[in-house]
Amino acid sequence: MELTARQTELADAALAIIAREGLPALSFRAVAAEAECSVGSVQKAFASKDRMLAAAFARLRDTAAPIPSGEPGRPDLRTWLVELLVGILPLDDPRRAAQRQGDAFAQHALVDPDVASAIAESDARIRSLLASLVDRARSEGEVPRHVDPDATAWAVLALAQGAAAQLLYAPEADAPVRDRLDHAVAALLR
């Protein structure tokens, strides 16, 4: 979804509200107050609340999951996957806010098929990338041939989502989480 600079600013304001108060608190009026502008300017930027939600989700998807620097899957897949997971898990306040935002959209997806479709599409893109990296690692001999790329990609995404949920209600330091992730990823790649 292409956003104007104004829509981006307002979508970011919407995300700030969602992180603090949850999706039920989101309204044109709340976004206007957060962005210090008029309700009319929010309504001009977004024809409906659904369009504002779609823009906020697009911003979250584009900003919340930083890919580790360098070539994907390098220097080796295991190290890269651990770095990816550590980078997205809610181990600090900004990532906890992003996780709360993502969880709010996941809950909203239960009643909004457009949000559900957008999340499913995003997950499918992530799984496709991960599967291609596992396939490349198999062809290069880094990962055994019996490791199924699609099943492994699904498991990595499930690991990330489960770990993220646990870290929201039981925060931990980076080091022990990194160690457990390294063991879990190593097991998936054996």
List keywords for this structure.
190 residues; mainly alpha; single chain
SSE order:
HHHHHHHHH
CATH topology of the largest domain: Tetracycline Repressor, domain 2
- How can the largest sheet be summarized? none
Overall number of structural domains = 2
Q: Give the DSSP E fraction (strand runs of 2 or more residues).
A: under 5%
The CATH architecture classification of the largest domain is Orthogonal Bundle
| Helix proportion range | over 70%
Gross morphology is elongated
How many H/I helical runs?
9
Protein architecture, described:
With 190 residues, this protein is mostly helical. It has two domains: 5-61, Arc Repressor Mutant, subunit A (Orthogonal Bundle), CATH 1.10.10; 67-188, Tetracycline Repressor, domain 2 (Orthogonal Bundle), CATH 1.10.357.10. Helices cover 73% and strands 0% of the residues. The protein has helices at residues 5-21, 28-35, 39-45, 49-63, 77-88, 93-109, 113-139, 149-169, 174-188. The chain is elongated, with a radius of gyration of 18 Å.
Task: Compose a concise summary of this entry.
This protein is an all-alpha fold and 190 residues long. It is built from nine helices and no strands.
